[in-house]
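Entry type: protein chain
Record version: 2
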Amino acid sequence: MSQELDYLLSRRRFFIGAGGLAGLLASGQLAGNSQTRKRLFPSNPFTLGVASGDPTPDGVVLWTRLALDPLNGGGMPAQDIPVQWRLARDEKMRDVVRSGTAFATAALGHSVHVELTGLEPARWYWYQFTAGGVDSPIGRTRTAPAVGASLRKFACAFASCQNWQSGYFTAYRHMAGEDLDLVVHLGDYIYEGGISGGSGPRKHNSAEIVTLTDYRNRYALYKSDPDLQAAHAAFPWVVTWDDHEVENNYAGLIRDNRNPPGDFRLRRAAAYQAYYEHLPLRRSSIPVGAGMLLYRRLTFGNLARFNVLDTRQYRTKQPSNERRLDAANTLLGRRQEEWLIHGLDRSPARWNVLAQQVFLAQRDLAEGTERRFSTDTWDGYVASRERLLHFIEQRQPANPVVLTGDVHSNWVADLKADFNEPGSRTLGTEFVGTSISSGGNGSDMTARGQRILTENPHIKYYNDQRGYVRCTLTPDSWRSDYRVVPVVATPGSSILTRASFVVENGKPGAVRA
């Protein structure tokens, strides 16, 4: 870590001269009055916006990161910097109910994670940070309903796969205007690749990222997007990762075959730390070396329980198509799989949600009698999937719904007791959401999509445009609206609801609305 701190210190000199801010930090003058503090930073340190996440009935996590020079290591000194925070019941920040001081620590990239408790359930709050006399933007967040509370409605949206080089994040601007309680992000928050040689609308800021500084700079690039900042400031988020937060198609500590050998543990540790530094996660997710606890469970009254999964950190290597039935293959790892099954078995919720990354339903990609599968998905870990679906069939947790990202297209699928028997029992529903920008503008239908629909009768819908999925839950039904933007190559596209599907309580399987 000493090299990282040295680098940050050198960037700080670019702005304020050696020793200036460090001396103020040491003398405690950052705690002075606002007139004194306003002279400490030469520019706005809140360049990456604000965010909140992981709401509970009595609390939430508030996040920001100080970065004077965000694309070049942050431009902050090597010292920890005190940051004041305020939480209010109104958007003008007049009715302040909680306040305090946290530290933007140099060791964690000058990120701030304020983990609040003691709040009222099911309530909107507004929050703001102040550092060196400079105020951050005001964010809005919401606590979860009380455990067991009877809810008539809960609204959320889920999204994934936002490749900077593929297009603009216009969908997030529209998402920020929705009436939601929560946003769920299912992975590929950044992409690790280098500068594209194509004619994409935007370019990455470096070659492929490997070090902690590399990952910090890449997150800073993505988080500079105003539409992404707007969606973060509007709602609490629940996040999990997929592969591109580290390296394409990695599996546990196994690198993608197309990449050269090296010490992948170091790269994964750097990537995991940068992920924590840039998202509103709890202390329980602070990385330890190359490991980080990300799977967790959130409950919203008596209506919904979200099981947030990690399908990257614990998986075995992707098998060949010939070895995909091998019982030794695991996608979740034993401990996470047991945690999931135990939680589903004890859940009192009306809707039991798996928020995860890769296609769970079987998806035969070949035509006719030939069979071919993507083994980076649950199709490569058939024993894991069969254990999960067998449990659901036998123990029948209420209304299983799977939310999935990864594939840059929209899908709806029935989860079958036997995918090779179309008439077998339907056990649940999988809603697969498209990308925010990955894949470019896209289209409504492709020849490949039509072939897959033909080969897989349990898959009911396909669309290849960009956007997100808006979900409305009531005790009687789950409705998923597929919201798409026709264009991401240029900013400012309109949005429309391309299709809607409904699952009725007690009747697994989605029906087009």
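Comment: The first helix runs from residue 2 to 16.
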